[in-house]
Amino acid sequence: MPLRPRRVGRANSRPRIREGRPFPLGATWDGIGVNFALFSAHATKVELCLFDIEGTRELERIELPEYTDEVWHGYLDEARPGTVYGYRVYGPYEPSEGHRFNPNKLLIDPYARQLVGEITWDDALFGYTVGAPEGDLSFDTRDSAPFMPKCRVIDQAFTWGLDRRPHTPWEQSIFYEAHLVGFTKLHPDIAENARGTFSGLMADAVVDHLRHLGITAIELLPVHAFVDDSYLADKNLRNYWGYNTIGFFAPKQRYLATPFINEIKEVIAHLHAAGIEVILDVVYNHTAEGNELGPTLSFKGIDNASYYRLAPDKRYFINDTGTGNTVNLSHQRVLQMVTDSLRYWATDMHIDGFRFDLATILAREPHGFDEGGGFLDACRQDPVLSSVKLIAEPWDCGPGGYQVGKFSPGWAEWNDRFRDNVRAYWRGDEGMLPELANRLTGSADLFNKRGRKPWASINFITAHDGFTLHDLVSYADKHNEANGEDNRDGHDNNFSANYGLEGPGDDPTLRATRLRQMRNMLATLLFAQGTPMILAGDEFARTQQGNNNAYAQDNEISWVDWEGIDEEAAELVDFTRQLINIRRRHSMLRRGRFLSGAYNEHLDVRDVSWLTPTGEEMSQDNWHDANGRCLGVLLDGRAQPTGIRQRGTDATLLLVLNAHDNGVSFRLPQVIGGSSWLRLVDTNLPPEEENALLSFGVDYVVTGRSLLLFELSRKLAPQSLLLPRPKTKAKASR
After folding, report:
1. Fewest 10 Å CB contacts: which of 322, 427, 639, 660?
2. Within this chain, do residues 116 and 209 fall inside the same structural domain, yes or no?
3. Same domain, residue pair 107 and 132
4. Does residue 283 share a domain with residue 246?
5. Which among 282, 402, 295, 252 is positioned nearest to 342, based on CA atoms?
6. How many domains does the chain fold into?
7. What's the angle, vertex CA 531, arms to CA 597 and CA 462, rounded to 5?
8. Residues 583 and 602 in one domain
9. Do 42 and 303 form a contact (C-beta atoms < 8 A)?
10. What is the pLDDT of residues 434-479, one digit of tens each?
11. Active-site pick, 136, 352, 357, 538
């Protein structure tokens, strides 16, 4: 038993609890007892509430005896791992001053490592009386404990054995964004009790699939403890994505197949053994407590004025997140909580990196976004956090919230410009060649400054938020009716197309067009400079039936249908694997420096040249031709920088992209160092026809809506035609 039952009552007068220490924060088992420490700058008293092992019956309340440096603390000898607890915090209930203390509300410890149970929505969860004329200025006296999850003390000990982090270099990384539940829920080769849980990620079939593709890192949607919104519960839906955090140290309880947190560590060790890093999508910008009309679950009742950014009148919350509240990282203790959480997952759990939801907010100070703000500075100087992969979603809905390319050196950023520009190009939009060229070369226009590298651009075509790759080429409009919001939610500007029919279709020509467009976009993603990210299931054309905002669809709409992989989908898997292998073999596709197009007189080489279909260099007129949709990209392997960690050949490559509806005749240029071109990829051909030698000067007919990749070869092609070497050394401009 974690501790023996005692009666519920007022703070115990016997000296059962000692002062303990104000650090570390949270409930810490030291092998003898448990130290409890809770930050609150404005509380007048804190009670530790102990529950039975199931968290259903409150056993007693013990007042924390000491207050040091704004931390309430006490040490309980009889507490053990497994002890279930929560807090009641006393203080002023003065919303107009930013204070919302209400000891009738049981509160989650912000540092809790594990939660017991789920929220049951009831009006007792709110600090004010729901429906009262005074609104949030009223005070509710009902006990919220029966409806609240509780905290559990854990023993953090774990034998990691020979676990070694892969430490995959950025320029060799290929990310795979997946939902823990959706990725494993329907897999027939996973034990039924492990599906939809961390344990499911340990299954050989899952690990083998990732390894077979060539994935180096799996990026998991939020796994921190979060709340299923009441308005979703009313519609028999629940929060699937998990962007509604209530505990930054605890995992979502239903994601565990066992009662033990160490399940997560076992999964990470298994993935590391396969050479796969684990990246967590984390939400530190807001919490599940909403605005002044939201529930009192943790932070709001512990110290509302410290944890949240408040409007000048202090009653209302600043809402730069669009979710009702904004976490106040300008407060030193709140900043400490966030960085403590990150260090916990990086050190205790061996997590390899983090993707930060609405990261612009984390860099906000009262005056706005600040690249030198407290959070970014803390990460930059921290010996743990500066050594893991840090990825920003560089936007929020506040003023000046779009900050792509403006984060600190050392950070990577989701690049939505890549997503939108590549989608628009392959859809056939006018005037896209200059933007396409920028995205193919690592978005140097955004990231080439302060010594940042091409890997800082996280390139993606699709992500959890939006259409899948299949739906991107099958639907012109969103179809979110299942969300119960009359199809008003989700993005309207998707840069998608249906190619003549909305939704599924069996016409062979239509299916061929859609499949080729999927191959085109996968190839563009994996042949562009930067760090590619693939959405789970895109490699076999997973559909969400046109839903581009499946945040509440914890069902077959969002789950990966492994048994539905037909022959056509299996071929797309093989194609994706081929693309990743080509990227891994050819370091020119993942350079450590930005391509510039500048002529190097010493080497007599230009790292990238831009070609028209006639094989000539692009002119200003070509770049500004709104109808131009075909582009050649010549990557000269002799320009590969030295002294940069690379793996693979330095072959010269020719990439040809044609977004015209019809075929285009493209003249294959003569290049020093070779005698012909070896065709590696043609998205209009089956794989067995791709590898072929073609002569210099051949007018190759590039099928409409197709992408090709050639490698310079020293072998002579049949009837090879050698053209004179161009004498011009002028830099192509645009």
Report:
1. 322
2. no
3. yes
4. yes
5. 282
6. 3
7. 115
8. no
9. yes
10. 999 999 999 999 999 999 999 999 999 999 999 999 999 999 999 9
11. 357
Q: Which two tokens stand for residue 721?
A: 């035609």
DSSP string for 379-418: HHH-TTGGGSEEEE----SSTT---TT-SPTT-EEEEHHH
Q: Do residue 625 and residue 575 come from a single domain? A: no
Residues 114 and 247 in one domain: no
User: Is 571 assigned a catalytic role?
Assistant: no
Side-chain-facing half-sphere of 363: CA atoms under 13 Å:
28
Average pLDDT along the chain, 734 residues, taken 10 residues at a time: 47 72 98 98 98 97 98 97 98 98 98 97 98 98 98 97 96 98 98 98 97 98 97 95 98 97 98 98 98 98 98 97 96 98 98 98 91 92 97 94 96 98 98 98 97 98 98 98 96 97 96 98 98 98 98 98 95 97 96 88 85 97 97 90 55 97 97 93 86 93 97 81 38 34
| Residue ranges making up the domain that contains 633 | 595-713
Look at strands 706-713 and 676-682 and give their pairing: antiparallel
Q: Is the peptide bond before 613 cis (omega within 30 degrees of 0)?
A: no
Residue 10 in any domain: the answer is no
Is residue 557 within 8 A of residue 567, CB to CB? The reply is no
**Selected catalytic residue, list 47, 109, 393, 690:** 393
Residues contacting residue 560 through CB under 8 Å, at least 6 positions apart: 182, 183, 185, 186, 187, 536, 537, 542
Residue 726 lies in a domain: no
- Say yes or no: 668 and 543 in one domain: no
**Can you read off the two tokens belonging to residue 81?**
């791992």
Does residue 341 lie within any of the structural domains? yes
Residues 117 and 88 in one domain: yes
- φ and ψ at residue 78, rounded to 5 degrees: -80, -10
Residue pLDDT, tens place only, 586-638:
999 999 999 988 877 777 789 999 999 999 999 999 999 999 999 999 999 88
